[in-house]
Amino acid sequence: MMKTNNLHFDSRVIHEGLNPDEWQGATLPPIFQNASTLHKTAESLSNTFAGKEKNHIYMRLTNPTNSAFEDKVASLENGKGAVVMSSGMAAVTNTCMTLLKSEDEFIAGSSLFMSTYLLFTGVFKKYNLKARIVDIKNTKEIEDAITDKTRFIYIETIGNPKMDVPDIEKIAKTAHAYGLPLIVDNTLASPYLVRPLELGADVVIHSTTKYLSGHGAATGGIVVDGGNFPWENNKRFPDFAPFIERKGELALLDKIWREHHINFGTTQAPFHSYLAMIGVDTLALRMERHMSNAIIVSKYLNSHKKIKWVNFPGLSDQADHETAKRIFGDKGFGAMIAFGLENQEQCFTLIDNLDMIYHLANLGDCKTLIIHPWSSQYVSFEPDVKKSLFITPGLIRLSVGIENPDDIINDIDQALDKI
Ligand code: PLP
C-alpha cells in the first residue's frame, strides 16, 4: 500500500485506501460479490467470529470492497475507522440508536435534513427517545436543555435547506464540558471543505449518495469514528465497557456495527461502495468547481429583481458568513443555495421552464439540481411545522453543479423571464 500521509488532500482523495498488492494489481477494489466467505478450517471461522482474526464472514457483516471504501473515507475525515451502510439515513439511525436507550434524550439543532427531522421528532417518540430541538447557535439554550438523560448533540455542517453554518468548535466545547459526544452530518460540506473531527467533533456521518459519490449513481451512508471520545468511566455511557474492552478507541464504531448495523441489516451493496470509490477520486476537483460556481450563481441570484432573498453562507450579508469563513478557511462555502420567489406558482413556472437544470430530489450531483421543497419532500408536513423548518411556498433549493457557470445562470435567467 502506498504511503499517503505526506500527500496533499487533493492527492489523498485519489490514493487513500488503495491496495493493488492485494487486488492482483487492480487500482480500484474488485467488487467482491459473494454473500459468504470460505474458511479452510473450523478454527479460522471460530477465531473470526470471536474477533481474534480479521477475516470476512458474511456480506451483511463485512465485505472487502466495502472495507476499502471505509478505509478511504475514515482517512479523508481524519478518523480512526468507519462503517459504510446502505444509505445516509441508515448511518444516522444506527449511530443515534446505538447511543440511546429507552427514556434517553439528545439535543439537535433545528436545521436538519427532512428525514432526520422526521426520525428525531416522530419515529423516535415510539421508542421513548426524546429529541430536544434547540437554537444551536445559543449556548445557553443548549446548556439549559442538557439533563442527566442527554446522550449526544447532533448538528449538520450546513443546515439543509436553511444553509446556516453552526460553529462546530464552540458546540464541541459545550458538548465535552458535559461529557457528551458531538455528532456532525458533514454531507453538505464534504471532507474537502471541512473535517469536523479536526474541529472537536467526535463522530461524522455522510450520505455518500451526495458529494462523496458526485455521480448520482449510488446511494450510501457512512459513519466515521474520531476515536477520541472518552467513553470509559462516563456515567452517561455505562454500557460501553465490553466494547471498550474489545476495540478500545473504536468502542463506539464497534457498538454501532455489532448492535445495530449487522442486526438491522443495513448492509451496503459492494457495487455501491465501488461506485462511491470512483466518485471520491474527483472529490477535490469537483468541490472546487461546485463552490466557485455557487459563489457566481449566488451573486447573480442576489442581484436579480424577481428574487426576494438568497441564503448562501458565501454572501457577505449572511448571518453566518464570518462563522463559515472561520470554519471553512478559504476553500469556499459549499454549493447549496436556497432562494425565495413570491409564491409556489412562480416556483413552478421557474422549474417548468428550465432546459438544462434537472428537477429532482437529490443534491451534490455534478449536474445542477433544483427542487421546490414545500410541494415535494415536505408536502405532507403541517404548514406550521414547515414554517418552523424554514420551508415556505416561495422557497427554491438549488444544488449547484460543475457545468460552465454561464450555462447555469443562462438557464435560470431565461426561466425567470417567464415569470
Ligand atoms: N443527511 C443529509 C444532510 C442529507 O441531505 C441526506 C439526504 O438528502 C441524508 C442525510 C440522507 O441520505 P440518504 O438519502 O443517502 O439516506
Key structural traits:
419 residues; alpha/beta; Aspartate Aminotransferase, domain 2; Aspartate Aminotransferase, domain 1; 2 domains; five-stranded mixed beta sheet; globular; binds pyridoxal-5'-phosphate
Task: Describe the secondary-structure layout.
Elements: H1 9-15, H2 42-49, H3 64-76, E1 81-85, H4 88-99, E2 105-109, H5 114-121, E3 130-134, H6 139-145, E4 150-156, H7 168-177, E5 182-185, H8 190-193, E6 203-207, E7 221-225, H9 241-247, H10 251-264, H11 270-280, H12 283-303, E8 309-311, H13 321-328, E9 336-340, H14 344-352, E10 358-359, E11 369-371, H15 383-388, E12 395-399, H16 405-416
Parallel strand pairs: 2-3, 2-4, 4-5, 5-6, 10-11
Antiparallel strand pairs: 1-7, 6-7, 8-9, 9-12, 11-12
The structure holds pyridoxal-5'-phosphate.
